[in-house]
């Protein structure tokens, strides 16, 4: 599923190549959010988060964290029901940076949040690890590469 272009580009590609309007829960939600004007705000926030991420300066990490929170606020449905595609890239970026900085708890937390943004429901993955706790995927989400 093309993520970068958003709803309009995704619909154009499906009409062009397959001849139909794609009507999954993500598209339904984006169409609804677009009517409220929040989709444009989300796009701006995602672009700003990408700019902060590309600077790679440590102080900019706080900016990416802030943008993740603001992007999350533009979604009206829980991620387990409608994947939050706009959160995947900035959360994975944060996980990678935290890992490079040796901040393992934050790295794992960001990676789990990234998976949860795609609809995964995961129990037992948080740090610190508790003996006897298993990692369980309660619900599978959208696959990304």
Automatic annotation (TrEMBL):
Superkingdom field: Eukaryota
Protein name per the record: Uncharacterized protein
